[in-house]
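Sample pair:
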Amino acid sequence: MAARHVTATCHCGAVELLVSFPEGLPKPIKCDCSICKRRGVEVLPTALENVRVTKGADMLTLYQFNTFTAKHYFCSACGIYTHHQRRANPEQFSINTGCIDNL
């Protein structure tokens, strides 16, 4: 399977991520933590080093709760959740599939 590189953006375009999936796109998953269940979004996991904020790092807002292990990132302008560092595997980010361009 070939590596895949994608761009992910928030709704207003203030935040942009460049994301690499070295093994190709993984199967989307649904996190079952209390915030992700309420969001109802599917995510694609990848290693931390495969995600780079290319625009709007200063626009990202961090939200943490409970164990404060997971780190959920939102655009402070439009409120869209773009990605989070996983509690189950802190060595990975999960990318909101709805933010990935042309997916």
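The chain has one domain: 4-99.
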